[in-house]
Write a structure and sequence with these properties.
Keywords: Signal
Distance between the termini: 34 Å
Number of strands: 26
Shape: globular
Number of domains: 3
Signal peptide: 1-27
Protein name: Secreted protein
Order of helices and strands: HHEEEEEEEEEEEEEEEEEEEEEEEEEE
């Protein structure tokens, strides 16, 4: 509790400095990673790795996560609320403490008030060399443009440039070239220690030169807002960068326009066991999408979702994912306007196993 009270008083500069603490890099991608599903009272063993990961609630939507033995420099955190209402979660800061990686997150309801909720979170940090096929990269971006930390499997340097209006950023991942026009999967999470904020993917272009993504960020009231954020890109790779293991991972883009699910082209709908185009999405009602990842059920596992749109929408998981035989059922990805009204936003969903 003493640590949590200190966090409440920490300045923005201190938060970012903590995020940049260094730890020795290990030999393979990733250097460190972990994920956790918190059900509101305890971690869920079937969806938590390392098994000894600890979540400590601090009240008013604040949580500390300890990923044992996963200390690594920099990296990214993604977090998704698991709630039947209009709630999102964001990262505050993260960094190594001895051999462990410690991340702090906070969750909010529409309008920007903190709220306690179940959630799913993932941490990953990588450094060269990278010998895996596929494409993988991430950025931890500054609120005024610029890169705090980054990784690119082609060893190129990623960039983040503000586009002028508040909360608009162009993320460029050079060297991660694909045929286009859209290939792979994306996850985005807002990072701010003092203010509720959420970010979404607004535009995306894949080309032989790399990936171009426009990210929009908003405050709790839905106003455009400059904030730090993390973005991860995966193309036939897991969300934490490694491959075989895990052998079981997939991603799916539910494109606009609404109302019916409009699954993106096969390269944005990848299944590590069955190949492109094998995952499915179906409408479960306004703003709800059932996503199925066939032949991928392998515990422990993790699911993350991100909104795709341009009006301040955000998405969460209506309930924890489940299983039907070897099919992973995400019932449902739920999307909302900034005011908390269900909306048929586009969404990006990523499923990843540890093995």
């Amino acid at each position: 509790m003493r640590i949590l009270r200190r966090l409440a008083a920490v300045s923005l500069a201190a938060a970012l400095a903590t995020a940049g603490l260094a730890a020795p890099a290990q030999a393979a991608v990733p250097d460190g990673h972990g994920f956790v599903l918190w059900d509101g009272a305890a971690t869920v063993p079937a969806s938590t790795w390392p098994p000894a990961t600890v979540v400590t609630p601090g009240g008013f939507g604040l949580y500390r996560i300890i990923f044992p033995g996963q200390a690594a420099r920099g990296g990214v955190v993604h977090v998704t609320a698991v709630n039947g209402g209009p709630v999102w979660c964001q990262a505050l800061r993260w960094g190594p403490s001895g051999a462990d990686e410690i991340a702090y997150i906070r969750c909010y309801k529409a309008g920007g008030a903190p709220v306690d909720t179940p959630f799913s979170a993932v941490f990953a940090s990588s450094s060269p060399p990278d010998g895996f096929p596929g494409r993988y990269g991430y950025v931890h971006a500054n609120l005024t443009g610029g890169v705090i930390d980054q990784y690119n499997s082609s060893m190129a340097l990623n960039s983040v440039v503000p586009l002028g209006p508040p909360g608009q950023y162009h993320v460029r991942l050079p060297g991660l070239g694909t045929p286009g026009p859209f290939d792979g999967g994306i996850q985005v999470t807002a990072v701010h220690p003092n203010t509720g904020a959420h970010c979404q993917v607004a535009k995306w272009s894949s080309n032989p030169g790399g990936q171009d993504v426009v990210v929009l960020c908003f405050d709790g009231a839905g106003a455009p807002f400059n904030t730090w954020f993390t973005l991860s890109y995966q193309y036939e790779r897991s969300l934490f960068g490694s491959l075989a293991p895990p052998k079981f991972f997939g991603y799916l883009w539910n494109m606009p326009p609404p109302p019916a699910p409009n699954v993106g082209p096969p390269p944005t709908n990848f299944n590590s066991q069955l190949g492109p185009g094998a995952n499915a999405a179906a409408s479960s009602g306004l703003g709800l999408t059932l996503v199925g990842f066939r032949a991928l059920a392998q515990r422990p596992d993790n699911v993350q979702v991100t909104a795709f749109g341009h009006l301040g929408e955000f998405c969460n998981l209506q309930a924890p994912w489940g299983y039907s035989g070897t099919t992973v059922l995400v019932r449902n990805v739920a999307c909302y306007t900034a005011a908390g009204v269900r909306a048929d936003s586009g969404s990006l969903t990523s499923y990843n196993s540890e093995f």
